[in-house]
């Protein structure tokens, strides 16, 4: 092997080592404190021994009851995911994130299906209205079941000064030995979309909370 391939291999190995030791822990815990990452959240018991765990969080300067409606209307064909619609739609998700709370999208219940795309969805596994929403399922590989079980928890915690901590936790339980080869790369994409979603929810909730009452948009429109 010549010096150039050796150098290239060394750079690649160094980059992978840096990602695994620094980049990966950072994006799996983006915005969350050590206590939040270590503490239990609703839905943890559904996959007790997770093979991969991500906990992300953001502070929203609005009370929890003004943040919850944005969580309740998550989903394709509903409020969207408040992230990067253009990127999601490039792969056929047909997402159109709402700019306001829509009353007819607020009646979420256990057993409902929250769609990620027109033919792909997750089930509402747990619900504590106003506090937490836990989705469960997986994205199939064509006609084959996904090689993992998955939960996606959205948890609101009221803080002093009419602020809210929004925590989002992903838990993966592998059902096939090779599942990590699929999940690990996907988790990097999930981080980018989740960070965009958290910021999108914060922007919407804070804007609605600070708008003069007579200028707040009336519920009903989806854009």
Keywords:
223 residues, Alpha-D-Glucose-1,6-Bisphosphate, Chain A, domain 4, 6-stranded antiparallel beta sheet, 5 helices, disordered C terminus
Q: State the name of the first-level CATH class.
A: Alpha Beta
Classification by helices and strands = alpha+beta
Strand order of the largest sheet: 1-6-5-4-3-2
Mean pLDDT: 89
Quick one: overall form?
globular
Polypeptide structure, described:
- This protein has 223 residues and is α+β, with helices and mostly antiparallel strands.
- The chain has a single domain (23-215), classed as 2-Layer Sandwich (Alpha-D-Glucose-1,6-Bisphosphate, Chain A, domain 4), CATH 3.30.530.20.
- The protein has five helices and six strands; from the N terminus they run ααβααβββββα.
- It has helices at residues 3-28, 34-38, 64-72, 85-90, 179-210; strands at 52-60, 113-117, 120-128, 132-137, 148-159, 163-174.
- A six-stranded antiparallel beta sheet has the order 1-6-5-4-3-2, with helices on one face.
- A hairpin with a 3-residue loop joins strand 3 and strand 4 (132-137).
- Helix 3 crosses helix 5 (179-210).
- It is globular.
- Residues 204-223 are annotated as: Disordered.
Element layout with pairings:
Blueprint: H1 3-28, H2 34-38, E1 52-60, H3 64-72, H4 85-90, E2 113-117, E3 120-128, E4 132-137, E5 148-159, E6 163-174, H5 179-210
Antiparallel strand pairs: 1-6, 2-3, 3-4, 4-5, 5-6
Please provide a brief summary of the model.
The chain has helices at about 5-30, 35-40, 65-70, 85-90, 180-210; strands at about 50-60, 115, 120-130, 130-135, 150-160, 165-175. With about 220 residues, the protein is an alpha+beta fold.
């Amino acid at each position: 092997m010549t010096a150039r391939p050796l150098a290239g291999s060394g750079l690649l190995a160094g980059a992978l080592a840096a990602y695994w030791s620094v980049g990966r822990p950072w994006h799996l815990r983006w915005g969350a404190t050590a206590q939040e990452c270590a503490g239990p959240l609703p839905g943890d018991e559904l996959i007790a021994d997770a093979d991969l765990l991500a906990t992300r969080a953001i502070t929203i300067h609005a009370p929890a009851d003004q943040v919850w409606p944005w969580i309740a209307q998550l989903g394709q064909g509903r409020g969207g995911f408040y992230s990067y619609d253009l990127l999601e739609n490039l792969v056929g998700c047909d997402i159109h994130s709402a700019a306001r709370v829509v009353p007819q999208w607020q009646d979420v219940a256990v057993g409902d299906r929250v769609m990620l795309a027109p033919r792909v969805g997750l089930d509402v596994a747990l619900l504590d209205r106003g506090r937490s929403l836990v989705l469960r399922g997986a994205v199939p590989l064509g006609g084959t079941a996904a090689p993992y079980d998955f939960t996606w928890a959205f948890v609101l915690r009221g803080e002093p000064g009419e602020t809210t901590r929004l925590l989002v936790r992903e838990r993966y339980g592998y059902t096939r030995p090779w599942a990590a080869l699929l999940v690990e790369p996907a988790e990097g994409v999930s981080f980018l979309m989740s960070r965009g979603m958290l910021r999108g929810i914060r922007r919407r909730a804070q804007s609605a909370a600070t708008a003069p009452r007579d200028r707040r948009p009336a519920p009903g429109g989806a854009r």
